[in-house]
Structure formats: C-alpha cells, structure tokens
Amino acid sequence: MGSIEPVPRPRQFDEQRVLAAVQAAFWDKGYAGTSLEDLLAASRLGKGSLYGAFGDKKSLFLLVLRKYDEANDRMLRTWLEQADRGIDVIRNFVTGPVRDPDGEQARRGCLLANTAMELSASAAEVAAEARRSYASTTDALTDAIRRAQREGDVAPHLDPDLTARAVLSGQLGLILLGRIGQDPAALSATATALLDGLLPKP
Question: Over 90: is that where the pLDDT of 149 sits?
C-alpha cells in the first residue's frame, strides 16, 4: 500500500488582513527598517505561522509588493473605464499623491517608488517588479492620452507613449519631493505646471 499523504491544515487566519497589515508595516518603515518583531506584531501571528504561510521576510515582501502593484494597475484601468474623459485619468494620476493638504500622504510616498529607491540596486527581483509595474502603468497612461487626444483635450501631435513616460517620470518626481517634506501647496502648484507643460491643449 502507498503512503497516505497528510492533509494540509487550513489556515486559521484571514490572509488578506494579514497581508494588508504586513504591507502597512513595510510601507511605514521600509524593507530594511521592518524587523521580524514588527511583522509579527502587525500580523498578530507567530513566526512559524507567518513564515510557514508566506516564506521568509524577502518572499513575504515581494508578495506584498506584487499585490500592491497589481491593485494599483487595476485601479488605474478602472479609472480609465469609468472616467468621463481621458484627461481626468491623467490629472488624477499626477495630482493624487500630492492632493493631501497637510502633506501626510505625500510624506508616506508610494510603496513601489519607496522600494525602488531603497532596493533596486541590490535586489534584482525588486528592480524587475518595478520595471514590470511601471511598464503596465505606462501602457494605461498611453491609452488615456490617446483617448484624451480623440476627445480633443490634448494636442494631437504628441507621441502618446513618450508623453506617458514623461507623465510617469513627473509623477515619480512629485512623490520624491513629497517624501522629503516639500510644502503641499508648492507640490500642488508643481503638479499643475507639470500637467500644463506635458499635455498642451490643441
């Protein structure tokens, strides 16, 4: 007779809650600054349960980062599907990270952008994930720009792909300025100038 395979025990925790809590811990402190104790406190799990379910710290972080990126990709595509005009999607994308009047959201930054600055030079997996996610974002922005051109809100002579890359680069610059505590009013004015410069009307 063959051996009987053990039946896996069902997880005794809410996986989505745990991943959301772990994401918040990594987002607040960065990868290097987040200790095992921080992860255990955030997840309310023991080390065996946490690492047994998700692997070691690096594997857990990469999982959280991918889920964060995929959620942002879905959100951007949903904006594009539901927006009255394509130009609104681009404006929301650029101004979103700096819209908070007290600057708290801006100082927290973006998990992917924060991670890319912290780890891309030393972790090939992070650099690859950043390239994948930013390529997806660029594709969505390109579609939004093409739509805005069809709707008469953006000059038709612009190259949609190159303009999308410029919009993404500008947004990342705003995120960096927000992280270092730039004045929220100045950030908002910069975002407006960025949009006016990159997306001239016909």
Answer: yes
In 151-199, where does DSSP find H-type helix?
A: 160-179, 184-198
Q: How far apart are the first and last CA of the chain?
A: 77
Q: What is the 3-state secondary structure (H, E, C) of 70-130?
A: HHHHHHHHHHHHHCCCHHHHHHHHHHHHHCCCCCHHHHHCCHHHHHHHHHCCCCHHHHHHH
State the Cα–Cα distance between residues 188 and 91, nearest whole angstrom. 11
Angle at 170 between CA 138 and CA 152, to 5 degrees: 65
What are the tens digits of pLDDT across the range 110-126?
999 999 999 999 999 99
Q: What is the pLDDT of residue 12?
A: 65
Give the residue among 12, 66, 68, 71 at the shortest CA–CA distance from 44.
12
